[in-house]
Predict the structure.
Amino acid sequence: MSASPINRRDLGLFVLRVGTGAVLAAHGTQKLLGWFGGGGLEGTSKAMEAMGFRPGRQSAVAAGLGEAGGGALLMLGLATPAAGAAAAGAMAGAVAVHAPAGFFNQSGGYEYPAFLGFTAAAIGVTGAGRYSLDHATGHRFDQPWTLAGAFVGSALAAAAVVGKRAKEQLADAAGSDGGGSGGTAGDMAGATG
């Protein structure tokens, strides 16, 4: 009995990477380019402002690049730790927007962006596998320091952005007699994952 030339673990990572990366890249191009029915940069900027991410344009660019860029790199299996961290960081912002609606997606909850974020993070930690550009380049962009730096940087950036949004929402709510206008998951209209 001879061994199969195809490594099932690496093939599974390839399928997971490409599928997850494609979904993330599609979401990102909705934000940046208006593809697939998205609002493009202008529409996403307005939505980000309505959701409390200020300034809206920079927030839209960051979210779009985290999703589109992270997703594209995941599909290629290139700089996989950085790609997974960028996508997970972008999804942390989406989770913050959807959290008031609870967990389940059917109620506008954070189930879907959390799943995408955890999947991207898991791929980033695991690595791209043999069928990837990371493997083809001798893991030049997939080093232990890359993994640590990317995830620490992404976590710090996501915490700062989400924390700033929460602080501004509290200030807005106090300034408008408790009414608040921090935006909801319904404001998303294709703006986040």
